[in-house]
Amino acid sequence: MPAPETLRELRRGQIVAIARKIVADEGLEALTIGSLEARLAFSRGVITYHFQNKDDIVHAVLESALEEINGSMATGTAAGNHEDRLRATLRTYIRGFIEHVEATRILLSFWGRISSDKRARKANALLYATYRKGIAQMIEAGRGAGEFGNDVNVDGLAAVLVGVVIGVAMQSYFEKGSIDADAATEEAVNAALARLSARGAST
């Protein structure tokens, strides 16, 4: 028999995995204790032992999806100059949404709750803030290395580039094959680099 703590983690993981599938396939409204019980090999009592209520399960699903998307961000770091790193980072952010289909479906299901659900709003804001911070740090590093000019609002440009990430990812997700995500990313990077050009900006 597994240790109690190991069994607890296993059961919680099983519940979240099934809950994720329900939300991704059928929408957030389809997630109920009853729908989980129907798909799991254990009782309602086991579910409520590991999660106090449906809201706890709902937010565990959201956190799991965000962790998956965020985890994909770390895989896109690139060697080379700061231009190369910026290009690789934006490509990774966009691919994080496109390639993690279940997690993206879950995030989309939660968007309708953001205005009324403080926990969902906070989690979504943290995701965007993390993206903006990563891009801003990359721009600042490029400026420090003399590769980028100083005449730019770093936070503003970071926010614009996060908008590009979400926009390109959603177009690719909702209309598969409608755009070339890599080409769109390249155009966004080229536009940002033109703005950041050390030759075109005051130092």
Briefly, what is this?
This protein has 203 residues and is mainly alpha-helical. It has helices spanning 4-26, 33-39, 44-50, 54-73, 82-99, 101-111, 118-144, 154-174, 181-196.
- The proportion of strand residues reads under 5%
For the record, the CATH architecture of the largest domain stands as Orthogonal Bundle
Q: What is the overall pLDDT average? A: 88
Low confidence ranges = none
- CATH superfamily placement of the largest domain: Tetracycline Repressor, domain 2
Biggest sheet descriptor = none
**Structural class of the helix and strand makeup?**
mainly alpha
Q: What is the H/E order?
A: HHHHHHHHH
Q: Radius of gyration, rounded? A: 20 Å
What separation lies between the terminal Cα atoms?
A: 66 Å
Shape: elongated
Number of helices: 9
What number of structural domains do the residues give? 2
At CATH level 3, the topology of the largest domain is: Tetracycline Repressor, domain 2
